[in-house]
Structures are given as structure tokens and as C-alpha cells.
Amino acid sequence: MLMGDTCTRGCRFCSAETARNPPPLDANESYNTAKAIAEWGLDYVVLTSVDRDDMPDGGAERFAKTVPYLKERNPKILVECLPP
Length: 84
Description:
The protein is α/β, with parallel strands linked by helices. It contains two helices and four strands, in the order ββαβαβ. Strand 3 (44-48), helix 2 and strand 4 form a beta-alpha-beta unit.
């Protein structure tokens, strides 16, 4: 799950932590996510995230940065993105 474990909403069906001002994002998250997935040897991944209403793009850039890192390490990997 991208963008940490703290969401800016508070949906009753979800167990993610909620905060109006969540902690700052890890600048290396996209790279580190791709590195871990490559080490695990996965050939299909689903990327999702918490909602981040505090970000102008809602976090879309995180998805856009992570996918190329994944493809760089494994060009044949299948990536499904499920942004909130």
C-alpha cells in the first residue's frame, strides 16, 4: 500500500489509521517499493494506497513513479494500479 498507513478520510469499512494531517511521505518510497518487489520475485502486483486529500494530486504521482521503477527491474512484471 503506497503513501503510508494513514488516510485523510475515515471510511467505516476500512481499518487504516486516520488523520487530518498525516505524517510526511517517504521520498524514497517508490524506489524502495520496487526494490522489495523485485527481491520477492513477484511477477504480478497490485498497487493501492490510502487516500491523501492533503496532496494536490491525491498521490497520483506516487503511482506514476513506482510503475517505471518496477518495470526497470522486471520488464515483464504485470502491475495493476488501484488508486482510491
